[in-house]
Design a protein that fits this description.
The complex is a heterodimer. Chain A is 54% helix and 16% strand. Chain A is an alpha+beta fold. In chain A, strands 4, 5, 6, 7, 8, 9, 10 and 11 form an eight-stranded mixed sheet that branches. In chain A, strands 16-17-22-19-21-20 form a six-stranded mixed beta barrel. In chain A, strands 3-13-1-14 form a four-stranded antiparallel sheet. By secondary structure, chain B is an alpha/beta fold. In chain B, the strands form two sheets. A six-stranded mixed sheet of chain B has the order 6-7-8-3-9-10, sandwiched between helices. Chain B has a four-stranded antiparallel sheet with strand order 2-1-4-5, with helices on one face. In chain B, strand 9 and strand 10 form a beta hairpin. In chain B, helix 6 runs parallel beside helix 7. Classes of the chains: A alpha+beta, B alpha/beta. Chains A and B meet through helix 14 and helix 21 of A and helix 2, strand 6 and helix 4 of B.
Chain lengths: 861, 255
């Protein structure tokens, strides 16, 4: 260099970033380790996205439903409703009574009943969870709420005419003039013609609402003396509070009288809480994501700091104090947390949007409308993300601060030893012992609720204990496993085994994502499998019927459909089961009503006296009969809901407790006498074939007879069990969602750990390359190491999950979960999935490792 | 995996175990290119102990890396035995290093998680072969590692670690052993031990050894010393002593 030095004409440019040089170092580090920090950011993102998503989703729903009810129920000042679902409704004669109350401007009785609407091709409208109902059309002149406007056609005018909401019409491609069938529980199928399509603000996704004329609605949908509810509008100058108070005085005290505002709030609240399960799932995902993410962040920062030992020592040597170093690391973590949570916020909005679209596609009755993002969502998400990151980075930051200035001179990394694991392991053992105590207390608890809670506490303790003991367990499990798996791979196998346990803390933290995921997934799998096994056992042991008539709709099995089925040749007997709600000796109780012979379709044991309720003779289960005053021959007064009439029953028979039957059974005659006509539902009808009848012919006959009711399934016992099992499977779908999340996070964690390990070990890998290890052998070593870590995490999770799934099943044995079934096949699948995930996660780090030049063995660190 | 045993060192001495012909090594390109090796030609004879010396930046390490197949040359040719290195794929080159070359690094470079014995047999294990027990025993005995075989590197002293590294280099009976400052991290006592072992392996086990060093006492163990400066071989010395080497180095640096 021959540049002549001149006096500086241009002053040295000072760094533009103001303030603390350590903050600058923090920023520069973020930039220098982009890929690693990206992985960390993603792990923060995943956790916070689910939290933000749950908030956005709930807020959006609340907001939309608020808007819907604010307009849909506008104008109502007082609403009179029955107190309970099982009450027959509001007496229709109260309409006249309320009209006379001073300050009343208008009274509008409303009728609605669950109904299934079938189009002219026999296809059911709406298959999701949104309401499907029939009601009466309130002419605009009598309407309190803003009357729905017509998109096409006109209001119903005759007995066989209906109108339908726009959403349903659009979805089913209906137009005015179409023929429809409306299936009702009690009246059966009603054939109608569509005269109009109306628009209503409460037209949420999937909702179906057909409206008859008022007279027809009264005839078909009520018992003639009741309406569903009565809405009242106040005259000008009368407040809704005043009006409501006055009406309360005028109507019987067993009715619920609310102001319009309360009614609207309650409606919003009711729907929001019905959908809150979605929210809980999202929050659970978010929390799991954050917990697991915390481990990834901890790992990343630990490794970044190990790598930057020299740099940190240098900073110390030139005079940075411990506090400054710690702050610099925490600042880095804070930035990562901030970026991660902001991205998580965006991700959460996307998630809420996607979820909304998904649930809408499933016709679950979601309103449409923009997403609502509140300040609370933003603040909580960012704070959670920041807190998790800072918490995870705190220990590494402290370690960084303890770096001695002379460490700058040392080239080699300190070897990791088992020292320091002792305390952690002792704590782990202690927590584990406490968890075992809680678990055993739960197992021996007589109450299922307490038992399950204690077992849950035990599980949480065991997971914590497993996490603390995991470094030691890693060594115990991975060494033999590695010997087994690594045997065919020679040196690569041995290296992968020893590398996997080289830093047991890190291995443990890496594997924990899979452990946690698999605890949840395998635990739920055990409960699900046991649930199915228990249900099957109940039906196998108790049901002797040849065919079961049931329905998956709200209208159950329409009574006329059962009448038609009873006439099919080859039917020996048909037994209808009803859910019975009545006041027994002054207290409201739920029981069952049976119409038809019971012993021919159900296996009853330990019977004394009558086996089937007939006339005013009831039969009770053993546990009911053991209650004081319930012995054979005792008399009980049953009163209909709404206190219309009473019947005195005599206990004429006792049977052993049966999981398919309630504590008391009355005859169909009593049921029909006490239950309002519109509330009569056959929830299942059991068919026994006549001796010698051809079962296949019988099935065809039953199907033909019930075909015109559209909603009836004719199934034999196995099919019915299968249908229930598929409902359980639907619940278990969540399980696969959890598995997927655990896998995504686990992949991130493993990629992160391996990528950093590869960088850390580049000298060693360089040496291996120098002494003749082929690239594919290097890759294989990394894949195997990852496989071992993943399988270790999975085994730990599976053991805990299967054990606690079984324990939960045991604590719920009296709740019907009396068969334990461990899905070994599924467990094996989870293990294989974990192994595959391990290898997949190692692909990129493996390729990077294989690219290491042999000269790295000689290079300076 | 069955592979042919590596060719045992040819019995006839005096023919080259490795050779470089007109080797040029450039780092970078264009204006900023650095010429690390400038038309170097050298033959390393079988059964000889060669030391390569030179000031920092003279290209001595680069020459060794190129000879050992750790690095590629820009121009010229390098042979190990009768194999021309240029044109070998990474896979072939790796196999060649594994089967015919031994390495001793300055900082031992042992795998911390493996025992001494596992470290020694590592290249053989990588090749998927069974070690030759007799040879392995000889090497272990010669290096005095009998009692240390089940120890981890962290439980060994620096000298012991480097002896394990030498054993690793010799275990697969390579045609040539390269050492990159093999005594750079050792005190003089351990240093003497390790060099004595290398000397011994040449004299008693008929090995070929090449080391890069800047320590005249280390070079004194060699049969032949090559001096490099500015990427060229400037001189060589036969049957050196520490004094003659030191004198020569002084002369070289004063130029």
């Amino acid at each position: 260099m021959t540049t002549t030095l001149k006096p500086a004409q241009v002053p040295v440019r000072l760094p533009r970033t103001p303030g603390n040089p350590l903050i600058r170092v923090g920023f520069r580090n973020l930039r220098a380790h982009k890929v690693r920090l990206l992985l960390t950011v993603i792990s923060v993102l995943l956790g916070t996205a689910f939290v933000a998503g749950s908030f956005v989703f709930t807020d959006t729903l609340k907001h939309s439903f608020n808007a819907i009810f604010a307009t849909g129920l506008k104008g109502i000042d007082t609403r009179v409703e029955p107190q309970h679902d099982y009450d027959p409704g509001v007496p229709a004669n109260l309409v006249a009574t309320i009209r006379k109350v001073p300050g009343v401007a208008r009274v509008s009785p409303q009728i609605s009943l669950p109904a299934v609407v079938v189009d002219s091709h026999g296809k059911r409208l709406q298959t999701g969870g949104a309401p499907s109902e029939a009601g009466g059309w309130t002419p605009a002149a009598e309407s309190i709420t803003p009357p729905p406007s017509f998109v096409a056609g006109a209001p119903p005018a005759g007995p066989d005419q209906v109108v339908i909401n726009q959403g349903a019409a659009k979805k089913a491609h209906l137009s005015v003039g179409d023929h429809l069938h409306v299936v009702l529980a009690n009246a059966g199928t009603v054939d109608v013609q569509l005269t109009g399509i109306y628009r209503t603000p409460s037209d949420t996704g999937g909702y179906v609402g057909v409206r008859f004329t008022q007279q027809e609605a009264k005839r078909l949908l009520t018992d003639g003396s009741h309406v569903s509810l009565i809405d009242v509008a106040a005259a000008p100058g009368v407040s809704e509070q005043t009006l409501t108070a006055r009406i309360k005085q005028a109507v019987p005290s067993d009715l619920k009288v609310r102001t319009g505002t309360q009614a609207r709030d309650d409606a919003t609240h009711g729907i929001a809480s019905a959908l809150s399960f979605v929210n809980y799932i999202l929050l659970a995902f978010g929390i799991i994501g954050l917990i697991v993410g915390t481990f990834i962040i901890f790992n990343t920062f630990s490794m970044l700091i190990a790598q930057r030992l020299r740099e940190l020592a240098l900073l110390r040597a030139i005079g940075a104090d411990r506090k400054q170093i710690r702050r610099s690391v925490l600042l880095e973590a804070g930035l990562v947390g901030l970026i991660g949570s902001l991205l998580g916020l965006a991700g959460g909005v996307g998630l809420a949007y996607g979820l909304h679209a998904l649930l809408d596609a499933l016709d679950l009755g979601l309103p449409s409308g923009g997403l609502v993002i509140t300040a609370r969502t933003v603040i909580v998400t960012v704070l959670l993300g920041l807190a998790a990151t800072l918490l995870a980075a705190y220990a590494p930051a402290r370690r960084a601060a303890q770096t001695a200035p002379v460490a700058a001179m040392r080239a080699e990394f300190a070897a990791t030893t088992a020292a320091g694991l002792r305390r952690r392991s002792l704590i782990g053992l202690g927590v584990g012992a406490l968890a075992l105590v809680a678990t055993f207390a739960g197992l021996n608890s007589s109450s299922a609720g307490t038992g399950a809670s204690l077992a849950g506490l035990g599980l949480a303790g065991m997971v914590a204990s497993a996490m603390l003991l995991s470094p030691i367990l890693a060594r115990l499990l991975i060494v033999p496993l590695g010997r087994l798996v690594g045997r065919p791979f020679g040196a690569a196998g041995r290296l992968s085994r020893t590398n996997a346990v080289r830093n047991p803390r890190r291995t443990a933290a890496t594997a924990f994502a899979l452990t946690l995921g698999l605890v949840l997934v395998s635990g739920i799998a055990v409960i699900g499998a046991s649930m199915k096994a228990s249900i099957n056992a109940v039906f196998d042991n108790n049901v002797t019927a040849d065919y079961i008539l049931s329905s998956q709709t709200a209208v159950a099995v329409p009574e006329p459909a059962v009448d038609a089925a009873a006439k099919v040749p080859g039917v020996g007997s048909i037994t209808r089961l009803y859910g019975m709600s009545a006041t027994v000796d002054g207290k409201h109780k739920l029981g069952m009503a049976v119409d038809g012979p019971l012993p021919s379709v159900l296996k009853l044991t330990g019977t004394t006296g009558a086996t089937t309720p007939t006339g005013h003779v009831m039969v009770v289960s053993k546990s009911t009969s053991e209650k004081p005053g319930w012995g054979l021959g005792s008399k009980h007064v049953l009163t209909a809901p709404g206190a219309a009439r009473s019947i005195t029953e005599t206990v004429g028979g006792v049977f052993d407790n049966n999981q398919l039957l309630d504590g008391w059974l009355v005859s169909g005659q009593v049921y029909r006498a006490l239950t309002p006509r519109t509330d009569q539902f056959v929830f299942v009808a059991l068919v026994k074939a006549a001796p010698g009848a051809n079962l296949d012919a019988l099935r065809t006959g039953l199907q033909d007879a019930t075909n015109s009711y559209y909603v009836v399934d004719v199934q034999d016992r196995d099919q019915y069990e299968g249908q229930i099992a598929s409902q359980v499977n639907g619940l278990l779908g969540l399980l696969y969602g959890l598995l997927a999340l655990a896998i995504v996070i686990a992949i991130l964690g493993i990629v992160n750990t391996l990528a950093l390990s590869v960088v850390e070990r580049r000298r060693e890998i360089g040496m291996l390359r120098a002494v003749g290890m082929q690239r594919r052998q290097v890759r294989r070593t990394i894949y195997l190491e990852s496989l071992l870590i993943a399988v270790f995490g999975a085994v730990l999770g599976l053991v805990l999950g299967l054990a606690y799934g079984s324990l939960f099943t045991h604590t719920l044995r009296d709740q019907g979960l009396n068969r334990l079934s461990i899905p070994w096949g599924q467990a094996l699948t989870f293990l294989v999935v974990a192994g595959v995930v391990g290898v997949l996660a190692a692909l990129w780090p493996g390729i990077r490792a294989a690219r290491t030049s042999p000269l790295q063995a000689i290079s300076e660190l | 995996m069955t592979r042919p045993m590596p060719t045992t060192p040819a019995p006839e001495l005096g023919c080259p175990a490795a050779s470089a012909t007109d080797v040029v090594k450039l780092y970078g390109s264009g204006e900023t290119a650095v010429r690390a090796l400038d038309h170097v030609s050298v033959e390393l004879m079988r059964g000889e102990f060669t030391a390569i010396m030179g000031p920092s930046g003279s290209g001595k390490s680069t020459l060794m890396h190129c000879l050992a197949g750790l690095d590629t040359v820009t121009a010229g040719s390098v042979r190990i035995g009768d194999v021309e290195l240029s044109g070998l794929s990474d896979k072939q080159m790796t196999a060649l290093r594994r089967d015919r070359i031994g390495f001793v690094f300055q900082s031992y470079n042992l795998v911390p998680t493996l025992t001494a014995l596992e470290n020694i047999t590592l290249p053989i294990d990588i090749a998927g072969r069974k070690p030759d027990r007799l040879w392995l025993d000889t090497v272990v005995m010669t290096l005095g590692l009998r009692d240390r075989l089940s120890h981890r590197p962290s439980e060994l002293s620096g000298g012991q670690q480097q002896r394990v590294a030498v054993a690793r280099a010799l275990a697969s009976q390579p045609e040539i052993v390269f050492g990159d400052e093999p005594t750079g991290n050792l005190d003089s006592l351990s240093s003497g031990e390790v060099l004595g072992m290398l000397r011994h392996s040449v004299d008693e086990l008929a090995q070929t050894v090449v080391i890069v060093t800047h320590d005249p006492r280390a070079a004194a163990y060699a049969d032949r010393v090559l001096f490099l400066a500015d990427g060229r071989i400037v001189d060589e010395l036969r049957s050196p002593t520490a004094d003659t080497v030191l004198d020569y180095m002084k002369k070289l640096e004063s130029v």
